[in-house]
Design brief:
It is a single chain. By secondary structure, the protein is mostly helical. The chain has two domains: 1-31; 34-62, no CATH class. The protein is built from three helices and no strands. The radius of gyration is 19 Å and the shape is elongated. The termini are far apart. The relative contact order is 0.07.
């Protein structure tokens, strides 16, 4: 079990290192914003608008 735990900790450290890497940050900035296709579902669209508004109020992406 100890060897498995060491592997997991090493993997966690590597993932955290890569998240903070400059190359990864550049790549993520180059991606388009996530967009949900509009399909006419009024309740879902209302929910998305509320989420967007809440994110904007907290300093997230508008």
């Amino acid at each position: 079990m100890n060897r498995n735990r060491e592997r997991q900790e090493t993997l966690v450290a590597e993932i955290r290192r890569q998240f903070g890497a400059a190359g990864n940050a550049r790549y993520l900035r180059s991606l388009p914003l996530f967009e949900v296709p509009r399909n006419g579902n009024a309740a879902f669209e209302t929910l998305l608008k509320r989420v967007d508004r809440a994110a904007s109020e907290q300093g997230g992406r508008p």
